[in-house]
Amino acid sequence: MLYWATKHLAAHFSLFNVFSYLTLRSILAAMTALAIALLVGPFMISRLARYQIGQVVRTDGPQSHLPKAGTPTMGGLLIIFAVVMTTVLWGDLVNRFVLITLGVTLGFGLIGFYDDYLKLVVGNSRGLIARWKYFWQTVLGVAAAILLYRLAHSPTVTAFHVPFFKTVALPLGAGGFVVLGYLMIVGMSNAVNLTDGLDGLAIGPAVMVAGALAIFAYLSGNAVFANYLQITAVPGAGELAVFCGAIVGAGLGFLWFNAYPAQVFMGDIGALALGAALGCVGFIVRQEIITLLMGGIFVLETASVILQVASFKLTGRRIFRMAPIHHHFELKGWAEPKIIVRFWIISILLVLAGLATLKLR
Q1: What is the pTM of this model?
Q2: Which residue range(s) make up the domain with 137?
């Protein structure tokens, strides 16, 4: 909206040409989303508390979580609201990548909303039945991947690129491309959801990964930079830097209230939407491996659950005291803030490693 207005004003006042720069609009998006989250946050938290939409704590989990019972949840509404409003203000809504990514974010947010609603309002402890949750996630993930395949302008954009090897690009074809897109979007969505178990544990790495993906999106959307850095050029992908900037700002605003001890929790509505958004952007800019590297905490959390379940079914023994792995460290006696900060430190290193690959090709 503001981008559209400044674009028309630039025809009469050259000063407004500055808003055509992606870098400026990405920074403004982060600042705007942060402001929206900080302003709307207290009101939203008070309404969630008023309607008694509070966290339900499992009695078989770490005992340190019992005092968190009743803490307002579904705070992911705040993240989604800030991201959508900011993208509408500063993003180019004609850009199909922006529209698809917004659609994925809202779609997965709706799935999470219904799941949270069943658990917290209706009182159904199971929430949305797993098979239906994965069914709708699959529908959205596959639909987004198909749309992105139809937008591909060349075989290069639909190939699977391996970092560190300039000439390695494996042709995927329509089927392989759609499957990879599905795995990235649905996989990242559920990985962030599994990580969201401690105050600020999921949103911290998500903000870092979103910030790095903003850089990749900007570079991929610029043919000159993409050619120089030997990364896949994706015309139009640069506009996703604004969307990622909005995630950074909204995430930091949410963290203001979610930092230990949390005043509000993200809930499935936020975790599923946020993970799907990151997976979708990473897939669009053709940086799947790097996205998984930078989001290594999410990968680790998911792997710990898979290994725990597989080990118990095959041998009857558990590898970890409890999965996901952050609960394992809790049961070992680590204080919650220590686990969070250490996981953040690992995320910082992984994001820096991902950015370093831009010159290691």
Answers
A1: 0.94
A2: 18-288
